[in-house]
Structure to design on (742 residues):
């Protein structure tokens, strides 16, 4: 059955509860539709409520809060998050709240969220007025649904402030704007100061609210989110913007300065202006983002490479660890490094790191072989005496040395004249190697550099990565045995693998592996090795022909060489029958089959259940894998526990982003710490030109102009939304939306 048919079935009010339960486990999209279906039974909705809370799925929680079959305890539990949906729910009954035990503290906050709902019914407001405190009674006295009888009672018997609000509401029973305008103008007492923060937050967002109210609300300087909304409100006058432009918080000041009523229309140059302002107009929740959110989004394909320079503006210090981790990743394309190397928005440290990464093999080879230059004024005599790099004859000796508590005495210090390159080298060390103490030492070095601690120290002597250090020595030594070379074929440094591929002691089995290396320089070195079998060389050369017939490919698929069969799988003319035949071959061949978009679904499904976790990972990296299979892999727990943040999940989401971005949206929500609140991470996602329009449509009314700008310039944004953004109060957003419509 097609996915569209399943969607219709999940929406239909004629679908049985049992069938809805079956549909709910297929994927997240159908689960949300089931959660909104009034035919879903209460036990299923209770289970979905737990799932939605665990996965931080806001849309599913909203649907459950609106469903009349939702169990009472979950209706109460979701009421404070979705009060409007709670009161609109046909199952709403005042008796539910009357029987609810309101403990001190929680009950007060709970009631405040409910009474601030614009659709709070009269019966509930009267019930709340009898049990709540002064600030809640102010909201009730201001509410347009409060009965005249209760307003009259509050105006006579209430406290002075409550009586003032009740009397003003009696004067304007059906006109909210006129009522709030009178509240704003009332200076004796200054009623604006008594409005609860939660209600004020809702009022300043109303597009029809009066200018008088916005001016009065600007007095609440302790609430920056309210000032930010005023700075982004289309009705805010220039004199008020002049005041907000001097605010100490950059995101408020910049929003005011970019307001159309303050600076006028913007013609050309909006993109450059936006890039120069985004770093100063940071979203206030930025510093609360969890470390690693951007890395997860990068690995899922949710962050586009064009937005990487924005990460450089995120850190408080000059050093930006997130961007450095991204550019240091072995999966980062050299083209990205080329684009970042001379980018004007990148700090000097990151630019130098990118330059180093492009030349790292040459630098490593220059440093490590033979005798190193040593500055005797910087080293103790103990180290100066040991200027020759030791040659380790076997790995047992190497690992014995590294397990020694005093390993650092036996390992050379390597002098590097440039402290920036020094620290880039330090970060390149794989942090999963070595003890926790050593990893902590390296991380503290990086933090100290960000604080400027090492500014006047050059050179700095660091402990180089032991495995990388000895890997280059061993691969370059003509005496290294084939056994040791076989352990270096998967070395993390590309230059080491090039040396291994060229070594005269290498075995045919090791050459087979290096011929399939991910790096073209390593593959070329392996093919150029004179020890390569002549028949193998001939068969590999024939596979270079892109027009090779299917008959020839079938013949080559029977080759005795693993490298040939792997290359057959990657040939553009290979068909599903050949792939099915090779699906039972050696692991390296099966890995290539698992990544091929033409591989039959039944074979991919079988691979996902294989005990070797590399095969399911290869399937997850296959952009041609069926969507349902990718969704299953995206939600598969890690072997050691946890959910969604393992390599398998991230790879599956990345393939979904390529194949059907709409299906990847629920997983992007889980990546964010607060999916329903503005954040720098969410801004980066909205900047991605491949994000689907439905995700962009959620946030085009955001009160933070960088998010609206990201949506206005995104080519996937619906034209109707772009048209609305051409009337945005922010001059950059307006200009970007106008250009997007051309």
């Amino acid at each position: 059955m097609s996915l569209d048919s399943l969607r219709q079935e999940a929406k239909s009010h004629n679908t049985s509860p049992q069938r809805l339960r079956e549909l709910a486990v297929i994927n997240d999209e159908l689960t949300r539709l089931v959660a909104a279906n009034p035919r879903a039974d209460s036990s299923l909705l209770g289970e979905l409520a737990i799932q939605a809370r665990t996965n931080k799925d806001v849309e599913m929680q909203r649907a459950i809060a609106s469903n009349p079959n939702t169990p009472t305890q979950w209706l109460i539990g979701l009421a404070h998050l979705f009060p409007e949906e709670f009161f609109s729910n046909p199952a709403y009954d005042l008796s539910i709240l009357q029987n609810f035990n309101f403990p001190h503290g929680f009950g007060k906050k709970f009631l405040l969220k409910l009474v601030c709902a614009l659709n709070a019914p009269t019966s509930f407001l009267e019930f709340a007025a009898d049990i709540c405190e002064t600030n809640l009674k102010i909201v009730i006295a201001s509410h347009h649904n409060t009965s005249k009888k209760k307003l009259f009672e509050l105006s006579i018997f209430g406290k002075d402030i409550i009586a003032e609000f009740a009397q003003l509401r009696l004067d304007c029973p059906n006109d909210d704007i006129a009522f709030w305008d009178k509240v704003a103008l009332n200076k004796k007492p200054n009623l604006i100061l008594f409005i609860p923060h939660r209600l004020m937050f809702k009022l300043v967002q109303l597009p029809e609210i009066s200018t008088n109210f916005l001016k009065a609300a600007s007095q609440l300087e302790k609430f920056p989110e309210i000032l930010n909304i005023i700075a982004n409100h289309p009705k805010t006058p220039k004199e008020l913007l002049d005041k907000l432009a001097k605010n100490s918080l950059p995101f408020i000041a910049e929003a005011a300065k970019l307001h159309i009523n303050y600076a006028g229309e913007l013609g050309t140059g909006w993109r450059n202006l936006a890039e120069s302002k985004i770093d100063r107009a940071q979203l206030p929740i930025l510093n609360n983002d969890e470390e690693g959110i951007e890395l997860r989004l990068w690995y899922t394909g949710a962050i586009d490479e064009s937005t990487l320079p924005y990460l450089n503006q995120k850190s408080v210090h000059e050093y930006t660890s997130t961007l450095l981790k991204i550019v240091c990743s072995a999966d980062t394309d050299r083209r990205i490094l080329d684009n970042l190397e001379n980018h004007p928005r990148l700090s000097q440290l990151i630019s130098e790191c990118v330059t180093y990464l492009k030349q790292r093999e040459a630098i490593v080879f220059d440093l490590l072989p033979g005798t190193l230059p040593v500055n005797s004024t910087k080293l103790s005599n103990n180290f100066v005496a040991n200027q020759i790099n030791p040659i380790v004859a076997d790995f047992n000796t190497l690992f014995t040395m590294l397990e020694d508590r005093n390993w650092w005495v036996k390992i050379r210090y390597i002098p590097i004249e440039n402290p920036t390159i020094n620290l880039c080298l330090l970060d390149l060390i794989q942090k999963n190697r070595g003890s926790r103490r050593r990893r902590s030492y390296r991380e503290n070095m990086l933090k100290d550099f960000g604080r400027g601690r090492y500014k006047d120290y050059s050179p700095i002597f660091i402990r180089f990565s032991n495995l990388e250090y000895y890997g280059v020595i061993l691969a370059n030594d003509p005496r290294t045995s084939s056994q040791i070379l076989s352990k270096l074929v998967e070395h993390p440094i590309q230059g080491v693998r090039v040396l291994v591929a060229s070594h005269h002691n290498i075995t045919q089995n090791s050459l087979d592996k290096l011929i399939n290396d991910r790096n073209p320089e390593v593959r070329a070195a392996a093919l150029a090795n004179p020890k390569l079998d002549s028949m193998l060389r001939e068969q590999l050369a024939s596979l270079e022909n892109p027009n090779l017939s299917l008959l020839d490919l079938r013949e080559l698929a029977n080759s005795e060489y693993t490298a040939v069969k792997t290359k057959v799988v990657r040939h553009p003319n290979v068909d599903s029958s050949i792939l099915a035949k090779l699906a039972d071959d050696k692991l390296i061949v099966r890995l290539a089959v698992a990544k091929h978009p033409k591989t039959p679904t039944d074979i991919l499904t079988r691979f996902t259940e294989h005990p070797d976790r590399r095969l399911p990972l290869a399937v997850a990296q296959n952009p041609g894998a069926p969507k349902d299979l990718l969704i299953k892999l995206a939600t598969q727990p890690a072997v050691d526990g946890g959910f969604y943040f393992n390599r398998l999940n991230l790879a599956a989401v990345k393939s979904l982003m390529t194949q059907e971005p709409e299906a990847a949206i629920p997983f992007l929500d889980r990546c964010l710490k607060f999916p329903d609140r503005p954040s720098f991470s969410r801004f980066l996602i909205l900047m991605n030109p491949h994000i689907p329009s439905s995700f962009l449509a959620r946030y085009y009314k955001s009160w933070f102009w960088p998010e609206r700008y990201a949506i206005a310039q995104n080519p996937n944004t619906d034209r109707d939304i772009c048209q609305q953004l051409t009337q945005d109060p922010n001059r950059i957003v307006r200009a970007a939306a106008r250009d997007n419509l051309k």
